[in-house]
Amino acid sequence: KDTYDYAHNQLILIKGRGIKTPPLDQLKRDDHVAMGEVTSVPAGKYAKMYLDKHGLWDKVEPHVVYTKDVREVLNYVDKGNANYGFVYQTDLYAGNTQDINVEKVKVTPINQPITYEMGRISDHELSKAWVTFMKSKEAKSILKQYHFE
């Protein structure tokens, strides 16, 4: 096999910690949901897939604030500029410390796994060493510390 799936992630819905929020299908006029641009941010595409799958897109779309990346989504929710946001599980953490101003509402499963894949395009010794390392227990331990699966 020319490629190796080295990690998996999950898309999650977050909100401001301790803040009461309406359900996604009952958002009020001034409520906002932050998510990445559907055409250019994979997490935005996954969020739309989740919302479509659960019949929520038409109700949520008027409240969407689009962002350039998931870090910006996290920032919007962290600062209270959005009620909800869609981010990767790993984005809740800076290293091993969870962002204290947001909380996970739930995992938002989609029809395809979020997989990080690598492949070698060279027979260079360093390339081979990198693949060997990424398959090691040490690499798996490091990825787990950053909340990858």
Features of the shown structure:
149 residues; alpha/beta; five-stranded mixed β-sheet; two-stranded antiparallel sheet; 5 helices; 28% strand; elongated
Give a quick precis of the structure.
Helix content is 30%, strand content 28%. The protein is an alpha/beta fold and 149 residues long.
Report what the structure shows.
There is one protein chain. By secondary structure, the protein is of the alpha/beta class. The chain is 30% helix and 28% strand. It has 5 helices and 9 strands, in the order βββααβαβββββαα. A 5-stranded mixed sheet has the order 4-3-5-2-8, sandwiched between helices. The two termini are 21 Å apart. 21% of the residues are buried. The model has no long low-confidence stretch (mean pLDDT 90).
How do the strands and helices of this protein lay out in sequence?
Blueprint: E1 3-9, E2 11-16, E3 33-36, H1 42-53, H2 57-60, E4 64-67, H3 70-78, E5 84-88, E6 93-94, E7 97-98, E8 102-107, E9 114-119, H4 125-134, H5 137-145
Parallel strand pairs: 3-4, 3-5
Antiparallel strand pairs: 1-9, 2-5, 2-8, 6-7
